[in-house]
Amino acid sequence: MSTSSATPRGSGSNEGAMLGSSLMDNLLGLLRVKVIRGINLAVRDVRTSDPYVVIKMGKQKLKTRVINKDVNPEWNEDLTLSVSDPTLPIQLTVYDHDMFSKDDKMGEAEFDIKAFIDALKMNLDSLPSGTLITRIVPCRQNCLSEESRIIWVDSRIIQYLCLRLKNVECGEVELQLQWIDLPGCKGL
Predict the structure, then answer these.
(1) Rounded to an integer, what distance in angstroms lies between the CA atom of residue 130 and that of residue 133?
(2) Which residue has the higher pLDDT, 8 or 86?
(3) N or C: at which end does the chain have fewer Cβ atoms within 10 angstroms?
(4) pLDDT top residue among 181 and 91
(5) For the whole model, what pTM was predicted?
């Protein structure tokens, strides 16, 4: 039995409530990153790989499930990041899952959400679904393998990206971004 002098839960201390409210005060909203699929990923086992994706933004780190024996995996998996600072880049790393040794890196990419956030700040309610808002072209400053499109679809802004993996011989990952407003948070 512990003889700690810490304040027990529910004893009138509102430190937890203050912490929760300060987190919500800084939170702008949620970013849903749909990891759609990998294309022509690197082989890291004998003839194939067992890939999964890790996404990081600031101190947050999320990962997809492992798809066994597939260099063209289809995850179609949603990973949701809390966004307090939209200027932070998002890092994506693909790994090959290994049972008895350290997982092998299969490439990485980085992207920012500046153009996506700028589109969210526009008043687009009167636009027809399917309207192209903006395009981001591949260049040396981004990891895009093809033009990225930000589109107004069913009263939501969606961005489609295809990222070319770096530090690897081949591979691309397709993503879709979508914003989720949260009641009680700061918002954009």
Answers:
(1) 9
(2) 86
(3) N
(4) 91
(5) 0.85
The tokens for 171 are 């591979």
**Phi (first) and psi of residue 183, to 5 degrees:** -60, 135
Cβ(49)–Cβ(43) under 8 Å? yes
Q: Which residues pair with 95 in a beta bridge?
A: 52, 105
Give me the amino acid identity at 105: K
- pLDDT tens-digit readout, 127-154: 899 999 999 999 988 999 999 999 999 9
Whether residue 4 is predicted with pLDDT greater than 80 in this model: the reply is no
